[in-house]
Amino acid sequence: MYFKLMRDFFKTKTWIIATLMFIIAFSLSSAIVYYELGFRKNVKTISASASNNVSGWAWSSNIGWISFNCTNDSPACVNSNYGVDIDLTTGNFSGYAWSSSVGWIDFSPVGPYPEAPLNSAHYDSSTGNITGWAKILSMGANGWLKMSGAWANGA
Asked: Residue 68 pairs with which residues in a beta bridge?
């Protein structure tokens, strides 16, 4: 019986099947690694200081509440350290906000922007208006948020 098993083991058909199984397993493993590395290139690490100068919440009828700083969370900044900042010299926004329904929102995205104004979020201190764009990262090319409105009483 042992010799019959050994004789069957060394048949050409057995070697072909074993080789094909190895090639298929190697190909699938390579494909998984390739796609995993490809997806990781698009992952951004979100980090900001709890001392950013924008805090509080904003409401969007499309996506709900948006948190501008991790100090809004309870306990503050334990799970994630994020925040939005306005450069008081240039008026340009930077940093990230969080929405529990759509995820991270980048306040200094790089264009091309969908339409005018062709810039990321910006505060004009002479008029009090906020214009430009922010980007919902999880929505790719469809994730643009148009900023419009006036800054009043710190809100």
From this structure: none
Structure tokens, 34: 């390739």
- Both tokens of 153, joined, read 């009483």
150 - beta bridge partners?
A: 129
Contact 146, 133 (CB under 8 A): yes
∠ CA 127-129-134, rounded to 5°? 150
pLDDT digits (tens, 9 = 90+) for 82-99: 889 999 889 999 999 999
Tokens 């900023």, residue? 147
Q: Is the peptide bond before 75 cis (omega within 30 degrees of 0)?
A: yes
pTM of the predicted model as reported, rounded to 2 decimal places: 0.63
Q: Match 């910006």 to its residue by tokens.
A: 122
DSSP 51-119: T-SB-SEEEETTTEEEESBGGGSSSTTSS---BEEE-TTT-BEEEEEEETTTEEEESS--S--SSSS-S
**Which strand (E) or helix (H) includes residue 33?**
helix 12-40
Q: In this structure, what DSSP letter does residue 11 have?
A: S
**Pair 75, 84: CB distance under 8 Å:** no
